[in-house]
Specification:
Radius of gyration: 37 Å
Number of strands: 9
Largest sheet: 5 strands, parallel
Shape: elongated
Structural class: alpha/beta
Order of helices and strands: HHEHEHHEHEEEHHEHEHHEHHHHHHHHH
C-alpha cells in the first residue's frame, strides 16, 4: 500500500467513525486494523480503560468480507459467571430452571459474522476452554445439549488486563492467549497523544454546545498547556466528562488555566499514571498460592473444631451415663470392668429374699440386663445407633443431636458398618 493511499484510507476511516487525532500510535493501530480486515485471523486489542478500543473491531468488521453479516459487541465482564456460557454458546430447553426454550447464543446468531469480546480477560476459566475449542475447530456444544454444533465466526477481543501476568497467576489460559493474540493492536493512552488532546477537547465542546444549544467554550493558551500536561488516568472518557462539565457550569465561554484546574482532580489517586503491569516472571505476587494456603488452613481449622466438639460431646455423654442409675460405674476414669459385672450370671438377675438394704447396696447388686461392654468403640457405636433411633433414621438430625458434622456422621457410619 503506498503512502498516499494509506493516508487517504486513514483519513476516510477517521471521518467515517468520528476518530479525532493524528498521533503516530493511533495511525499505526488503524493501519494494522485495515491490513488484517480482509483475513479471518483473530485480533487482540490492548490498552487502558477509556482509550477507545471499541472502535477497532468495528473498523475491522466493516472493512472485511463479513461486513454484510451480523456484528455483536459483548462485554464479558458484565455477564454473570453463571450465565455467560449460555449467553455465548446458547442452551437447550430445560438446561436450567429459567431455560423455557432453546437459545442459539451469540455464536449461533452471529454465524458468518464478527463477535467483539470486550474485557476478555474477565472470562471464567471454564468458559475459556469452550472459547478455545471454538477458535480451533469452530465447534461448540450449547449448555444442556449433547450434539456438537458448528459456527463460522470471526473473533476480535479486547482487554485492559495484563494477560501475561494473568497467565502466571493462573487466571488466564496460555493457549487461549496465543490463539487470540494472532495479531495484536495496541491503543495508545491519551497522555501519549500530544496535540490530539486539544483536538478532542474541541470536538467534545462542539458536540455539547450543539446538544444543549449553547455557545461553545474555548481554552486560553495556559489552559491548553494544563490540558496537555495532565496525566489523564481516565483517558478519553475523562476528557469528555470534564469538557461537558465545563461547557455547562463555566460562567464564561473562554476558560483559563485557573478555571480548568477546578475541574481537574488533584488527589494523588487520580493524577498518577495508570499502573503498568510487569512482564511475565517479574515480581510475582504469589496471590494465587496464598489464597490456596488460606483455604487449606481454614479447612484444617474446621476439622480441628469438629474434633474438639465431638470429644466434648462424647465426654458429656459418658458423664451422663455414669451418673444415671442403675449402672455399675465405680470409677469415672476407667472403662475396664470385671467380666462378672459386664456379663451377669442368671443368679445375679434372680430376685433375692427381701432384706433391709440401702440404695447403694441395691445399685451395687442390680445390673441392667442390656448392659454392654463399655469400651470406647462400643459406646460410640451405641450412642450413634440410639441417636438415629430417636430421630427415626434422620441422619442430619442425629448429627445435630450428637454435635458433629454430617460428614463426620457418614464417616462413623462407615467405620461402624452401619451404612
Amino acid at each position: 500500500m503506498s503512502a498516499i493511499m494509506e493516508t487517504r484510507d486513514l483519513q476516510s476511516i477517521k471521518q467515517r467513525y468520528s476518530i479525532v487525532g493524528n498521533c503516530d500510535a493511533l495511525n499505526h493501530a488503524l493501519d494494522v486494523a485495515l491490513q488484517v480486515a480482509p483475513t479471518d485471523v483473530s485480533v487482540l486489542i490492548t490498552g487502558e480503560s477509556g482509550v477507545g478500543k471499541e472502535i477497532i473491531p468495528r473498523v475491522i468488521h466493516d472493512a472485511s468480507p463479513r461486513r454484510r453479516e451480523k456484528y455483536f459487541a459483548i462485554n464479558c465482564g458484565s455477564i454473570p459467571e453463571g450465565t455467560i456460557d449460555s449467553e455465548l454458546f446458547g442452551h437447550v430447553k430445560g438446561a436450567f430452571t429459567s431455560a423455557i426454550g432453546d437459545s442459539p447464543g451469540y455464536f449461533g446468531v452471529a454465524n458468518h459474522g464478527t463477535l467483539f469480546l470486550d474485557e476478555v480477560g474477565e472470562l471464567p476459566l471454564a468458559t475459556q476452554v469452550r472459547l478455545l475449542r471454538v477458535l480451533e475447530t469452530g465447534e461448540y456444544i450449547p449448555v444442556g445439549a449433547t450434539e456438537v454444533r458448528r459456527t463460522d465466526v470471526r473473533i476480535v477481543a479486547a482487554t485492559n488486563v495484563n494477560l501475561q501476568r494473568a497467565i502466571t497467576e493462573g487466571r488466564f489460559r496460555e493457549d487461549l492467549f496465543y490463539r487470540l493474540n494472532t495479531i495484536s493492536i495496541q491503543m495508545p493512552p491519551l497522555r501519549e497523544r500530544g496535540q490530539d488532546i486539544v483536538l478532542l477537547f474541541r470536538l467534545f465542546a462542539m458536540q455539547t454546545a450543539e446538544k444543549y444549544r449553547m455557545e461553545r467554550i474555548q481554552l486560553t493558551d495556559d489552559a491548553r498547556q494544563l490540558l496537555l500536561h495532565y496525566k489523564w488516568p481516565g483517558n478519553v472518557r475523562q476528557l469528555k466528562n470534564i469538557t461537558e462539565q465545563l461547557s455547562i457550569l463555566s460562567p464564561t465561554r473562554t476558560v483559563d488555566a485557573h478555571q480548568l484546574s477546578q475541574y481537574i482532580p488533584h488527589d494523588p489517586d487520580s493524577t498518577q499514571l495508570a499502573v503498568v503491569q510487569p512482564h511475565a516472571g517479574a515480581d510475582h505476587t504469589f496471590d494465587a498460592e496464598r489464597e490456596l494456603l488460606y483455604k487449606i488452613l481454614f479447612e484444617l481449622r474446621g476439622n480441628v473444631s469438629d474434633m474438639r466438639r465431638e470429644m466434648s460431646q462424647l465426654k458429656k455423654q459418658l458423664q451422663d451415663l455414669q451418673s444415671t442409675p442403675p449402672t455399675i460405674i465405680t470409677s469415672p476414669t476407667t472403662l475396664d470392668y470385671p467380666p462378672s459385672t459386664l456379663h451377669p450370671s442368671p443368679s445375679t438377675l434372680t430376685p433375692q429374699p427381701s432384706t433391709p438394704q440401702t440404695e447403694d447396696a441395691v445399685a451395687e447388686e442390680y445390673v441392667e440386663p442390656e448392659q454392654e461392654n463399655l469400651n470406647l468403640y462400643d459406646l460410640s457405636r451405641q450412642m450413634l445407633i440410639k441417636a438415629l433411633d430417636r430421630n427415626n433414621g434422620n441422619r442430619k438430625k442425629a448429627a445435630q443431636e450428637l454435635g458433629i458434622s454430617d460428614r463426620t456422621l457418614y464417616r462413623r457410619l462407615r467405620d461402624f458398618d452401619l451404612t
